[in-house]
Amino acid sequence: MRAEGKNSPVDVFLTVDTVRMTRAKEMGLLQPIESETLEARIPSYLQDDDNQWFAFSQRARILFYDKTDVANPPASYQDLAKPEYANMICIRSSSNVYTQNITAALVAHLGEEAAGDWAKGVVNNFARDPQGGDTDQLRGIASGECDIAMSNTYYFARILRKGDNTITEDDIANIGWVFPNQNDFGAHMNISGAGVAAHAPNRENAIKFLEYLTSEQAQKYF
Fold this sequence. Notes:
222 residues; alpha+beta; D-Maltodextrin-Binding Protein, domain 2; 2 domains; 6-stranded mixed sheet; elongated
């Protein structure tokens, strides 16, 4: 979009993650818009201050565990670094934006030094080298490769709704979950969001599309 500049055919920029939305704004890829529908349907804390992007769904990054093998599941992200969970944890690569975001959140909550110590503790507790996407972490629990994993909520919801060729109904029943840090800063949340492209050739229709994304019909897909 940046390379195409004014010749860009893009009307709507749609992506996951607040960082990506913020970067798009900083790069000048979006434009402010006015919409009474968006203002009415989307809380202010899920909007850009300048109305250049809006969130259309939220997801929590939570902990999943094997009910059979984990008698005392971790209650917080910090717990993942405890020695009692050695050789139990599956997680995505540090190059993944979800892993980077939860790490950045812990830096903000705990401080850089404590977050660094946490990361080292989690690495020490790996059941396997980081690999795959969020669904692969849940598959790791089902296969017995690991006992604890971190995933966005909707990946598990997708398995419940559509099933998975490698995860049986018994596997699903044996997977428990924890919304961590309920005694302090709570589970880490992120969004899917969108904004109108800076040089959108169909600006008004782009706004209408964003408004549609807040409708009951469209929200079913989120």
